[in-house]
Specification:
Structural class: mainly beta
Number of domains: 1
Number of helices: 0
Distance between the termini: 16 Å
Largest sheet: 3 strands, antiparallel
Mean pLDDT: 82
Oligomer: single chain
Low-confidence stretches: none
Number of strands: 5
Length: 77
Amino acid sequence: MKCPFCGNEMLKGYVQSRDGLFWAEKKTAMTAFHRLRGSAVQLAEPDESPFVGCVAVAYNCPDCKKVVIGYAPEDRE
């Protein structure tokens, strides 16, 4: 994938989190059992393995220090 900022090739990898991976318009307090609501977008769902957590395919541009994450079903592995 080409970086949308500089046009260089990006490195494919993964963003992982133990409890969930979300994007939200505003910061909010997080607790152990908190689930974001409203306009929050779930970027990843729990992996089939209970030891992996939530995983989203992500592309890293080492030059720009930017990460691009797709959250469509085909972007999840």
